[in-house]
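Lecture notes, part 5. Sequence design as translation. It can be helpful to think of inverse folding as translation between two languages: the language of shapes and the language of residues. The source text, in structure tokens, appears below.
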């Protein structure tokens, strides 16, 4: 797919940016390494846990209405909601008397998963073939005490637009190869487990296949990942629409503390997605700590 778009200069810039991120990125909810080691030492090493829940038709209707009113996509809002969920759980773990950390919250990074097949220009032409071409693009946000959730959603929307305009997605394969085999390979590949990415979101959009059969009706679908974490990210969060209802899935490393963090992030993320009537222009991260 990358043969349709070539830009060596931009690929090099993306690699340098990712290396710099590896040097400064702080994980807000670090993995419990004892639990991680124990899960890797079992008969079936690396087995992850999959958490899931289902929203409501009313929740999705309200979510779409908010996004339409504000002028950003459901994807941009969802990524912002996930950033804020992670930050809010991080603040809960601090148990600080004053609430918001005095030194602030470290910059949050994530890699958004996207199917680049429909985003390549020029068009690959043969659209009769079935293929899923996965790419990732980085977004980042600095959540301050005064930053609002809706501001962050708009910011993420602008970042994604810039990525699409620059055609970064089709360059992902070249970027990934250069990162893992090029001049920074030794540094990047030596990073400790659990430091690659805090969370990886994937807005899988809609389930576009039949749900009613002679034997019954399928009401929800969820993605089960056995080996995603922490290779892709410490937590992988996926969500999609099935018959007007959002289905949510979180994949995480095994262990009591690792599962607790993932479950708390998922619960808060779902609450922010499903209860948009509680979100205003002034909703900040501290408002979500007790959401």
């Amino acid at each position: 797919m990358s043969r349709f778009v070539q830009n060596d200069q931009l690929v090099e810039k993306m690699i340098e940016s990712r290396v710099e991120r590896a040097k400064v990125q702080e994980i807000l909810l670090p993995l419990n390494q004892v639990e991680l080691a124990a899960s890797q030492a079992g008969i079936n090493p690396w087995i992850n846990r999959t958490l899931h829940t289902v929203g409501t038709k009313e929740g999705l209707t309200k979510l779409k209405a908010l996004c339409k009113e504000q002028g950003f996509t459901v994807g941009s809002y969802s990524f912002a909601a996930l950033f804020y969920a992670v930050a809010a759980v991080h603040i809960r773990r601090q148990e600080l008397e004053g609430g918001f950390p005095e030194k602030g919250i470290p910059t949050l990074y994530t890699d958004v998963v996207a199917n680049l097949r429909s985003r390549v220009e020029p068009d690959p032409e043969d659209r009769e073939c079935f293929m899923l071409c996965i790419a990732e693009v980085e977004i980042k946000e600095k959540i301050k005490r005064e930053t609002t959730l809706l501001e962050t959603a708009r910011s993420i929307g602008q970042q994604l637009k810039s990525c699409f305009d620059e055609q970064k997605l089709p360059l992902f394969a070249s970027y990934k190869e250069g990162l893992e085999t090029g001049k920074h390979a030794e540094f990047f590949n030596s990073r400790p487990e659990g430091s690659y990415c805090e969370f990886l979101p994937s807005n899988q959009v809609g389930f576009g296949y039949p749900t009613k059969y002679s034997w019954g009706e399928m009401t929800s679908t969820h993605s089960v990942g056995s080996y995603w974490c922490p290779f892709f990210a410490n937590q992988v969060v996926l969500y999609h629409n099935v018959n007007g209802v959002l289905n949510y899935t979180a994949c995480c490393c095994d262990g009591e503390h690792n599962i607790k963090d993932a479950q708390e992030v998922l619960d808060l993320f779902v609450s922010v997605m499903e209860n948009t009537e509680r979100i205003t222009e002034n909703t900040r991260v501290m408002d979500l700590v007790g959401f």
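The translated text above is only one of many valid answers, since several sequences can fold into similar shapes. Residues 76 and 158 are 9 Å apart (CA to CA).
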